[in-house]
Amino acid sequence: MVEIREVRICVGSYGLQELKFTGAFFTWCNKQNRDIRVYNRIDRVLVNSDWNTMLPASEVHFMNEGLFDHGVTPGCDRKLAKECILKKQIIYQYLQQKSKIKWLQEGDQNTKFYHNFLKARRNANRIFTIKDKQGKFLTNTKEINKEFIDYYNELLGKAHEEWKHANSGIIKRGLVVTEEQ
């Protein structure tokens, strides 16, 4: 099990330790019947030595299987949830206003801030990979461009030189929608 070994190496190299826990020993169950039911303790909280120094009495409480499944804790007050949402909105609005002020101060002045903003925007709008009709992933920019052009040509069709423009006289003699309609 390579994954477990990699986790153990990571935990060891960062000096992490499992936080003391209370409550249910097993935190997962496969929800099968008696004979094939499996219990396991998959939830763990890892902390470093700084954590243990600053918060020596800390512990985690695992609720019984079925009572808690990484969702909202039972008995959480709606008022508390509303307060949390409101605080998040206030913080978000504050950060938005702060970023607008920074943009107004530095945005159009050819600063490092402005160029970093442009780079981030360019990368966010760039398409790095697409899947073609055969299911093959394309990463080359020229291939991606060609695939887009081919797709939209097939979807919308190509302009044909033999197509003639519509005769406006014929169109005017047909049914016309009035402003009242």
Describe the structure.
This protein has 181 residues and is mainly alpha-helical. Helix content is 46%, strand content 10%. The chain has six helices and eight strands, in the order αβββββαβααββαα. It has helices spanning 2-13, 49-54, 78-106, 112-125, 141-156, 168-173; strands at 17-18, 21-23, 28-29, 39-40, 46-47, 60-62, 130-131, 137-138. A two-stranded antiparallel sheet has the order 1-5. The longest helix has 29 residues, at 78-106. It is elongated and about 85 Å long. The chain starts with a helix and ends in an 8-residue tail after the last helix. The model has no long low-confidence stretch (mean pLDDT 78).
In short:
With 181 residues, this protein is mainly α. The protein has six helices and eight strands; from the N terminus they run αβββββαβααββαα. It has helices spanning 2-13, 49-54, 78-106, 112-125, 141-156, 168-173, and strands at 17-18, 21-23, 28-29, 39-40, 46-47, 60-62, 130-131, 137-138.
SSE blueprint and pairings:
Blueprint: H1 2-13, E1 17-18, E2 21-23, E3 28-29, E4 39-40, E5 46-47, H2 49-54, E6 60-62, H3 78-106, H4 112-125, E7 130-131, E8 137-138, H5 141-156, H6 168-173
